[in-house]
């Protein structure tokens, strides 16, 4: 634990932040395990998989609408934080700026990049919206609690900025490649090509992880560390489920293409 204490702020005197850090990690580990077992968060290509197992009729919305709803409250919370907590230093400004850019990018991608062919269960939209909102607000509040506390012995915020920019750029590029797989009126799935898709089936998740690590390095709080670890585990589970799904749908899916990390996993 000594190495961890050198790179994160001391835990703040907040029972809430301590508890939510543990809960977030446990929850995302559970989601990762659920993905591996085939119990998916009902959106994207996996929505129909879960739908076939459900007999009860549920309220649904268009996927594009559901995803815009999911990201918007978290983005607005990031913007509001500039007014609620003004003038709290460079690190705090970088953290909330990175979070605002992250969610704004996601909204833009939903509106102009991604192509959707299905619907989302409204209950899932609410759950996803709350999870993103809690993540954003707790990240900002945990950073606010570091005000007046000595900086960590190892300063990672500039490394974090570089990783965040690489992550968000790589994630956007591979989302763009995915969007070009479908023509107008084409709702089928195809094997992705280009970029790192020739090595892993989920390079967009790989770069998303780099972005999360970047935010964690900028923040250097225990909460950001906990959320990043949980996000990595969840995206590992989801990439495993994605590769398994492609194998089930395409007989010619190349076996050398890994889940998330080239040549390794």
Summarize the structure.
64% of the residues lie in helices and 2% in strands. It has 265 residues and is mainly α. A two-stranded antiparallel ribbon has the order 1-2.
Describe the structure.
With 265 residues, this protein is mostly helical. The chain has one domain (17-249). It has helices at 2-7, 15-37, 47-51, 63-84, 90-112, 122-144, 157-179, 203-219, 222-249; strands at residues 60-62, 119-121. It has a two-stranded antiparallel ribbon. Helix 7 packs antiparallel against helix 8 (203-219) and helix 8 packs antiparallel against helix 9. The longest helix is centred in the C-terminal third of the chain and has 28 residues, at 222-249. The protein is globular and about 55 Å long. The model has no long low-confidence stretch (mean pLDDT 90).
- Overall mean pLDDT stands at 90
**Through-space gap between termini:** 27 Å
- The amount of helix comes to 55-70%
Secondary-structure class: mainly alpha
- Listing every helix as H and every strand as E from the N terminus to the C terminus, the arrangement reads HHHEHHEHHHH
How many distinct domains?
1
Bulk shape = globular
Q: Report the total helices.
A: 9
Largest sheet: 2 strands, antiparallel
Indicate the low-confidence ranges by residue numbers: none
Strand order of the largest sheet: 1-2
The oligomeric state is single chain
Strand content: under 5%
Number of strands: 2
């Amino acid at each position: 634990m000594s190495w961890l204490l050198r790179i994160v702020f001391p835990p703040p005197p907040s029972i809430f932040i301590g508890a939510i850090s543990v809960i977030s990690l446990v929850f995302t580990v559970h989601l990762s395990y659920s993905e591996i077992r085939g119990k998916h968060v009902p959106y994207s290509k996996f929505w129909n998989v879960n739908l076939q197992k459900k007999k009860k009729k549920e309220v649904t919305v268009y996927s594009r609408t559901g995803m815009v709803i999911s990201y918007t409250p978290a983005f607005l919370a990031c913007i509001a934080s500039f007014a609620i907590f003004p003038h709290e230093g460079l690190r705090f400004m970088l953290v909330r700026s990175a979070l605002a850019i992250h969610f704004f990018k996601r909204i833009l991608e939903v509106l102009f990049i991604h192509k959707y062919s299905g619907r989302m269960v409204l209950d899932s939209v609410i759950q996803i919206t709350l999870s993103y909102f809690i993540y954003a607000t707790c990240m900002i509040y945990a950073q606010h609690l570091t005000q007046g506390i000595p900086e960590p012995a190892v300063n990672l915020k500039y490394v974090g900025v570089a990783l965040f920019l690489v992550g968000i750029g790589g994630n956007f590029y591979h989302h763009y490649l995915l969007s070009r797989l479908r023509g107008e009126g084409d709702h089928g799935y195809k094997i992705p090509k280009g970029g790192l898709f020739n090595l892993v089936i989920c390079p967009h998740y790989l770069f998303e992880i780099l972005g999360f690590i970047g935010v964690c390095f900028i923040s250097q709080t225990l909460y950001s560390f906990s959320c990043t670890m949980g996000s990595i585990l969840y995206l590992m589970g989801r990439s495993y489920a994605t590769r398994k799904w492609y194998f089930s749908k395409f007989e010619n899916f190349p076996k050398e293409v890994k889940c998330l990390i080239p040549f390794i996993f």
